[in-house]
């Protein structure tokens, strides 16, 4: 621990004794570092510890660190201790922390010192030296006085250098005039902070109103791909193009780490000249709404732990770098990858990541690696059964064979039958976008509910506004679903099927990074086409395509293949039309008994009970 010159010696930087407590304290004038303060109750020879002097230095804004506040407070504390022959511990510093709402009691050096006082670890009769009582607190008088009295009752003598007052339990028993002085000082400090806070708050309110009504920049801070020219926000086109590429890579199926790897491999410059891109930067770009040009004003501070959204987001505050469709397609692709979480190798673990389900228990299929072929290989196995959690589906399926049959099935799929009654790509994307927007708005309303219940009028207004926005989105979503359900054949879906086939063929010839990139894109295409792949030890492997809106999955026909073969569930308007079925590995067309999934469920039940 760093100490004043008057304290240097064999015990400099610590309070000697046999029992120690540790405390992390900030490095003077800089970022927080770990420091240790030893505070003991008994000297090695059995004597009570000598009282120590602790200086506490605080100021509210980081800008004050560049002024004279730190030097002035520290110098006066050292002079006072030297005149009385006291050892000074000057490590208690809260630089840039406000005392108006008590944030310094919740974080920082004073909080830790108070904890040691309450634990009885500070020697009785020790001094806490401050420039003025407003350094200890600028809270309302009742709260500020409680802090002072708690220190005094714990045996700490509080000294204020600005007026020479000494607040000790012994003195206050016979002379109560310092209490009158303290209350006057606390009242003045709180009133000053309250007035300043109101003025600053009013100024910010005017700025926020101008930002909403006139599009005027609220501050000079803005996203890294935007600059301010002539008082207006403009895109930095070279950086905006990087943001667009990040969104497009997300849509193509690349995760955040993969996007970072590609950016770094291409030598893409970072925002501030750092060494390489980080996943946290990509996560912020994809996770927030700044790329859409939105800005969410806030009140409170991160440091104070009271930062809250204030009002609705300001749309069009910044120039948009991507459109709504691109934004939501990237969000949905990222959501699909989170659902499909699992171990990924350099070549993508398998194309059906997150799609495999056990037909017996409904659990996910686990991928196990048994070593290189031909004796080894990668297999699908029920994760529940592997954990011994009750599922009896102990069958294992070779992953490469299932992938190969699925891709071959795509190549021979009767796209015309699939497309009849299927939703157009544009309408499907609109349904996806509106559904995601609705979920986001409802999530924001849910987070506000606690504040509304506490009587926060501003939160109640935002809650009502979000409710109206949710109703509007719900109406739009119903219209989009209706349009999607009644639309004609979709060339966009046909293009997706065609792209998946082209990618599967290109993958066979590609190597290294090119093969990895193709597999990533192909895995994303399959997540858009296939709802799930069920692994049934009796009926085989069934790949279910995503049904059109309004059609329950169990009402869509399916074809049953033999063990280890794929069966398809397709979008069909006519349950009696067999032209949509595709047989693989010489699988015959299904008879009437196996045409409906409800019948399949009954068959499965009969076999289980047999």
From TrEMBL:
GO terms, molecular function: DNA binding; DNA strand exchange activity
Query: Where do the coiled-coil regions begin and end?
Result: 463-490
Q: What InterPro entries does UniProt report for this protein, alphabetically?
A: DNA_bind_recomb_sf (IPR038109), DNA_bind_recombinase_dom (IPR011109), Resolv_N (IPR006119), Resolvase-like_N_sf (IPR036162), SSR_resolvase (IPR050639), Zn_ribbon_recom_dom (IPR025827)
- SUPFAM superfamilies assigned to the protein according to its UniProt record, in alphabetical order: Resolvase-like
- Cite the residue spans of the region called Disordered: 1-29, 582-610
Q: Which UniProt keywords apply?
A: Coiled coil, DNA recombination, DNA-binding
Q: Where is the composition biased (Basic residues)?
A: 601-610
Domain Resolvase/invertase-type recombinase catalytic intervals: 52-211
Q: In what residue span(s) does the Recombinase domain sit?
A: 223-340
Q: Which Pfam families match?
A: Recombinase, Resolvase, Zn_ribbon_recom
* Organism superkingdom: Bacteria
Stated name of the protein: Recombinase family protein
Q: Which organism is it from?
A: Plantimonas leprariae
Taxon lineage: Bacteria, Pseudomonadati, Pseudomonadota, Alphaproteobacteria, Hyphomicrobiales
């Amino acid at each position: 621990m760093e100490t004043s010159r008057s304290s240097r010696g064999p015990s400099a930087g610590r309070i000697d004794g046999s029992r120690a407590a540790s405390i992390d304290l900030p490095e003077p004038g800089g970022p927080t570092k770990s420091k240790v303060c030893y505070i003991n109750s008994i000297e090695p020879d059995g004597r009570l510890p000598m009282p120590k002097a602790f200086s506490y230095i605080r100021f509210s804004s980081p800008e004050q660190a560049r002024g004279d506040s730190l030097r002035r407070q520290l110098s006066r504390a050292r002079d006072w201790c030297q005149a009385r022959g006291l050892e000074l511990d000057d490590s208690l510093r809260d630089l840039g922390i406000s005392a108006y709402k008590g944030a310094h009691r919740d974080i920082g050096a004073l909080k830790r010192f108070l904890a040691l006082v309450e634990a009885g670890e500070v020697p009785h009769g020790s001094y806490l030296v401050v420039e003025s009582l407003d350094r200890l607190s600028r809270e309302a008088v009742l709260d500020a006085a409680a802090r002072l009295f708690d220190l005094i009752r714990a045996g700490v003598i509080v000294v204020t250098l600005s007026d020479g007052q000494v607040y000790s339990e012994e003195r206050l028993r016979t002379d109560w005039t310092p209490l009158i002085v303290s209350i006057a000082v606390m009242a003045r400090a709180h009133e000053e902070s309250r007035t300043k806070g109101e003025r600053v708050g009013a100024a910010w309110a005017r700025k926020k109103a101008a930002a909403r009504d006139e599009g005027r920049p609220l501050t000079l801070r803005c996203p890294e791909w935007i600059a301010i020219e002539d008082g207006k926000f403009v895109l930095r086109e070279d950086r905006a193009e990087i943001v667009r590429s990040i969104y497009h890579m997300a849509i193509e199926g690349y995760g955040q780490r993969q996007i970072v790897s590609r950016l770094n491999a291409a030598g893409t410059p970072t925002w501030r000249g750092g060494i390489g891109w980080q996943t946290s930067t990509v996560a912020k770009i994809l996770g927030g709404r700044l790329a859409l040009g939105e800005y969410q004003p806030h009140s409170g501070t991160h440091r104070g732990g009271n930062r809250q959204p204030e009002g609705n987001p300001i749309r069009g505050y910044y120039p948009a770098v991507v459109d709504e469709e691109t934004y939501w397609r990237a969000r949905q692709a990222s959501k699909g990858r989170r659902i499909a979480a699992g171990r990924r190798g350099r070549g993508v673990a398998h194309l059906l990541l997150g799609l495999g389900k056990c037909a017996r228990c409904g659990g996910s299929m686990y991928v196990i690696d048994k070593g290189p072929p031909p004796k080894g290989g990668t297999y699908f196995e029920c994760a529940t059964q592997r954990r011994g959690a009750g599922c009896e589906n102990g069958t294992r399926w070779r992953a490469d064979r299932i992938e190969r049959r699925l891709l071959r099935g795509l190549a021979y799929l009767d796209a015309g039958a699939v497309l009849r009654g299927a939703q157009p790509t544009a309408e499907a994307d609109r349904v996806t976008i509106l559904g995601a927007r609705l979920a986001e708005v409802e999530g924001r309303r849910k987070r506000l509910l606690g504040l509304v219940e506490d009587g926060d009028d501003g939160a109640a207004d935002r809650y009502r506004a979000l409710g109206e926005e949710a109703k509007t989105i719900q109406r739009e979503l119903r219209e989009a679903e209706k349009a999607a359900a009644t639309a004609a054949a979709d060339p966009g879906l046909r293009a997706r099927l065609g792209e998946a086939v082209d990618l599967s063929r290109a993958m066979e010839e590609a190597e290294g990074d090119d093969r990895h990139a193709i597999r990533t894109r192909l895995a994303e295409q399959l997540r858009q086409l296939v709802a799930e792949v069920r692994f049934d030890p009796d009926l085989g492997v069934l790949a279910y395509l995503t049904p059109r809106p309004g059609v329950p999955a169990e009402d869509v026909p399916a074809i049953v293949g033999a063990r280890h073969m794929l069966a398809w569930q397709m979008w069909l308007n006519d349950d009696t039309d067999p032209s949509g079925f595709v047989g693989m590995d010489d699988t015959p067309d299904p008879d009437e008994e196996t045409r409906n999934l409800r019948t399949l469920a009954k068959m499965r039940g009969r076999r289980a009970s047999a």
